[in-house]
Design a protein that fits this description.
two-stranded antiparallel sheet; Rossmann fold; 5 strands; 128 residues; 3-stranded mixed sheet; alpha+beta; 4 helices
Length: 128
Amino acid sequence: MLTEEQRQQTIDQDEAIGNNLKNIRHRMIILSGKGGVGKTTISVNLAVLLQKRGYETGLLDADITGPNVPKMLSLTGQLRMHDRKIEPLISGNVRVVSIANMIEEGQPVLWRGPLRSKLLHQILADVS
């Protein structure tokens, strides 16, 4: 059972996600239930190709336990906050958000269902 404060936080977060998604004209999701099939490779190559064709492009690395997008794009450093918003890192002109840039290098992430979902919701609500 949620407290009134938790319920309001959920409503506020959902509203922030909706406002952020309104600013994205086209969205693609690359997914598979199986690991090792090339989801990250396809996502990175697609993002770079679209950027080279003149589209403003962002890439959310939603792989919480094995984030490799920053490695593939040679992105290092930590994500920063500005005005309580996450600032994506930039490779070429592709904006990238990944948990790999939120944790210490080599630190394992052993989160399951609810924590993973909560993190993805937080990122979607707070990215600038």
